[in-house]
Amino acid sequence: MKKNALLCILLMLCTYLSVAQVTSTTIESIKLAEKRNIKIYVPEDYSSDKTYPLVVVLDADYLFDITVGNAKFYAHKDKMPQCIILGIDQSQSRYEDCYYSPESGFPDKKGNAFFEFISMELIPMVAKNYHLANFKAIIGHGITANFTNYFLFKKSPLFNAYIALSPSFAPLMESKVPKRLSELDQMVFYYIATANEDESENQQRIQVFHNQIKGYNNNHLHYYYNNFDNADHYSVASFGIPIAFDQIFKVYKPISVKEYKEEILAHNGPVIEYLTDKYTTIETLFGFKKQVSLNDMMAIYAGAKKKEDLESIKELSKIAKDQYPNTMLGFFWEAEYLEHLGEPKKALRTYEKAFGMNEIDFATKDLALERMESLKADFGW
Fold this sequence. Notes:
about 375 residues; elongated; about 15% strand; Rossmann fold; single chain; 2 domains; alpha/beta; Serine Threonine Protein Phosphatase 5, Tetratricopeptide repeat
């Protein structure tokens, strides 16, 4: 009966969210044997044709709004995918929710029930009503940041990304978590933050954690650490959340000038591999194909020209034809490839094809005409 009631509430919530961005509601948990307040943010243009990463926010009574604000901003700037954000209010229960055994440091009593509430009740119920991607993140602060670590110890961790803001570690967790992170055989993102005015015990144990994790090597782990100046235990959250998003979703962001100089130009092999690997990773992590951005194609084009990598320009032309089919770009790059390959007649015909299509970025009709006239002049046509 309680399960049906919970389903009905979430179904009504789904309907209401079609006209609202954030909804607060109360659900009755079987695992906790009590009612709990939750908040859900759904992107304004939510579509059942897409999938959305899920971000679970503990301490939602004060972390939810700042998380939603940063997620909306980064998605608007195309620096992270649109996400569904689920917040759990713990204003009256955070210490009981996060209860652990003093001996083992792992959840005990209500802590066990809260763990199961999240993993076995809440997330599956949300997944029934929204199209969630496989990628899931969790955010906590202080004792709830410590609690996020427990999901790492499942045989297959429930979350792909962990944002631990000034965690108040349970006994030995500053050693157990780095060791566990070193053993994982799936891609995991882990962000941890402290500050020069953080609570002294937290700061000291986070430093132990950081020093220990530096001693391990795991190619599946993407680890990020900040120790903020002029910040305390509470302002760590406002500093840390945007930086965590910026780091965790780095692969999703458009290629930057720094990335171009340090990674693309240093890439061994055809630079087109960098582009295809980037978008394959995006699809694998987030469960959908992102359109290859013009910014990213131009970065690869610049790298290919600088490294005299003709084959990458050829492959780039194929991607441009697929992603921007009504523009000049694909045929323009194909013509440039043929021109440098020493096929002037084929290059001329291909520039002519490009000339008849829509201009985009640097690929203009004037430039195509200039290239065609130059080819004709070179060969006396």
